[in-house]
Amino acid sequence: MSNYGNPPSDPYGQPGPSGQDPYGQPVNPYGAQSYDPAGYGGVPQGVTFAHWGKRVGAAVIDGLLGMLAQSLYIVGSIMAASSAELTTDPVTGEVTNTGGGASGLALALMGLGIIMGLAFFIWNSCIKQGRTGYSIGKGVMGIKLVKAETGQPIGAGMSFVRQLAHILDALPCYLGFLWPLWDSKRQTFADKVIGTYVIDQPKG
């Protein structure tokens, strides 16, 4: 028989059930973490896709400004047309121009108008829209062009490619331009090909 008796009890108490942390569950100091189904850096939840009417309004504004940029071409064309004198042969019915050709000034104005119109298109629809997400028209209407994967502007180069992709919208009787009316993400064919959204986001 042992003279030492029973062993002393554990001074720290009995261990908890197997697998249980005796100090309790750790507290996350950062709070519960949420998961964004759109993916890291994507379009934030709660953002609404731009209504078709707003997109049309933005396109009309940009188009009118583009026409204004080409106003010199229109003036030159009128000057060239006014200098023509058309006569019709009573026998053959052939129409000929018996007046002088377009003046040098008219041709210069037409050429300058083309250059100004092209420059405005590149700046507004490619550079400005690509870098900020806003053309002038989109800024007025409070809508923004963004990349679907990142929620950020797509850059000048891709904005130019997207303008070319609008050919797909125009070819089937302009069906692609009407597609946002019933599409869940309100995308045109060009938006789907390039991977872009147009969202409601007024300029801050």
What can be said about this structure in brief?
Helix content is 44%, strand content 8%. The chain has 7 helices and 4 strands, in the order ααββααβαααβ. It has helices at 52-69, 71-82, 104-132, 136-141, 156-170, 175-178, 189-194, and strands at 86-88, 95-97, 143-147, 196-200.
Descriptive report:
- The protein has a domain at 52-85 and 98-200.
- The protein is 44% helix and 8% strand.
- It contains 7 helices and 4 strands.
- The chain has helices at 52-69, 71-82, 104-132, 136-141, 156-170, 175-178, 189-194; strands spanning 86-88, 95-97, 143-147, 196-200.
- The strands form 2 sheets. The protein has a two-stranded antiparallel sheet with strand order 1-2.
- A hairpin with a 6-residue loop joins strand 1 (86-88) and strand 2.
- The longest helix has 29 residues, at 104-132.
- The radius of gyration is 34 Å and the shape is elongated.
- Mean pLDDT is 82; it is low at 22-40.
Write out key terms for the chains shown:
single chain, 204 residues, mainly alpha, two-stranded antiparallel sheet, two-stranded antiparallel ribbon, 7 helices, 4 strands, 44% helix, elongated
Radius of gyration: 34 Å
Instruction: Extract low-pLDDT stretches.
Output: 22-40
- What structural class results from the helix and strand content? mainly alpha
Q: Main beta sheet: strand number and arrangement?
A: 2 strands, antiparallel
Order of helices and strands: HHEEHHEHHHE
Q: What percent of residues are in strands?
A: 5-15%
Order of strands across the widest beta sheet? 1-2
N/C terminus separation = 88 Å
Fraction of residues in H or I helices:
40-55%
Instruction: Tally the beta strands.
Output: 4
Count of helical regions:
7
User: Outline, from the CA principal axes?
Assistant: elongated
- Output mean pLDDT: 82
